[in-house]
Write a structure and sequence with these properties.
This protein is an alpha+beta fold. 23% of the residues lie in helices and 26% in strands. It has 8 helices and 17 strands. The strands form 3 sheets. Strands 7, 8, 9, 10, 11, 12, 13, 14, 15, 16 and 17 form an 11-stranded mixed sheet that branches. It has a 4-stranded antiparallel sheet with strand order 1-4-2-3. The termini are far apart. 35% of the residues are buried.
């Protein structure tokens, strides 16, 4: 017999959902058959799978060791998206902007995926899980029923703030804030040309999955989704401008494609930028990636369990190369406090 005690990361979900994670190789028909035969119980009482589990409840699974092993795949080296080596890169603590028992706020470097696209990839998501395991904040057993995960994504070559849920409650809270657009996300983008005035607004985005590129339209069209972007110039020169961009919606490549459509592509952007100017820029400043950094995030008014996060702001330091370029362009040490 196997017995599981429901903790905060399992509470609030239905029994059949939990059983699907524990007996992750079993067909649903087998699970419901075991429930009907009373081989699976909650608090030693009969269950039908629809029960909402509470913290402190116990789930008993009366199966032989061989049967349990057949239907339970060990997740010791398996994280979200497929198997990864537990010996891979561990998230560095200097990448953590904030952490508590429910969430992590991370500063993702450019060149690193937010989440893996295929089994052989590594990402900041896997690095975070390895960090939690290495520091004892997560156990292999807890991975059976809940896997911490990042809740928003940045393009591989975009650096900056990524939000991650460490607990089920934290994941649900972050996902809700992002869905309801009540968390404010700000980016710094170094763009081609002079931008003297603030602007932005609504537009429509169409994605071509074959090329993994998007187009920005001014009117609704079949397959297009509405986006909203705002920007203001922090520094503007004849050749380049530094913009603070507020992302109201959060669609793939939204900022990059939107600014390129305005005639001000992000410097270093290989997909939407100016190839000739990018080459000159790379030769002069040594920048290999696009100059787009998710630098600031502001939480809304919150109450209850998460009231300690209410109206809090976090900022992610600029990558060193990016900061050095800005200081060369405008001849002063850049701090977030002196952004105009």
């Amino acid at each position: 017999m196997k017995e599981y005690t429901i903790g905060k990361n399992e509470a609030g979900q239905r029994l059949d959902k939990l059983l699907g994670k524990i007996l992750n190789e079993a067909p649903s028909g087998f699970i419901y058959k075991m429930l009907r035969k009373k081989n699976i119980k909650v608090n030693q009482s009969r269950a039908d799978g629809k029960e909402l589990l509470k913290e402190g409840d116990t789930v008993q699974i009366y199966l032989s060791d061989d049967t349990f092993a057949k239907f339970h795949k060990d997740k010791k080296t398996e994280f979200v998206g497929g198997e990864v080596s537990s010996k891979g890169t561990v998230l560095s603590e200097n990448r953590i902007l904030y952490q508590d028992s429910d969430i992590l706020i991370l500063n993702k470097p450019s060149g690193v995926l937010s989440q893996k696209a295929k089994a052989s990839d590594d990402s900041i998501n896997e690095q975070m899980i390895r960090y939690l395991l290495a520091t004892g904040k997560l156990t292999q057993e807890q991975l059976i029923t809940f896997t911490p995960s990042v809740c928003n994504r940045l393009d591989r070559n975009t650096s900056g703030i990524v939000l991650a849920g460490v607990s089920l409650a934290g994941s649900q809270m972050l996902s809700s804030l992002l869905k309801e657009r009540t968390v404010h996300k700000y980016y710094l983008a170094l763009v081609l040309g002079k931008v003297s005035k603030a602007g932005g607004g609504k537009a429509y985005l169409v994605k071509d999955s074959k090329t993994n590129q998007v187009r920005i339209l001014q009117k609704p069209a079949e397959g297009a989704v509405m986006i909203e972007t705002k920007y203001r110039p922090c520094n503007a020169g004849p050749d380049y401008s530094l913009l603070e961009v507020e992302l109201i919606t959060g669609k793939s490549h939204q900022i990059r494609a939107y600014l390129a459509t305005l005639g001000h592509p992000i410097m270093g952007d290989a997909k939407y930028g100016d190839p000739g100017r990018n080459r000159e820029f790379r030769n002069q400043y040594g920048i290999q990636n696009q100059c787009l950094h998710a630098y600031r995030i502001v939480f809304p008014v919150m109450d209850g369990h998460f009231r300690h996060l209410s109206e809090k702001t976090w900022m992610a330091p600029l990558p060193e190369k990016y900061r050095e370029v800005l200081e060369k362009l405008w001849g002063k040490e850049l701090t977030y406090g002196n952004l105009e």
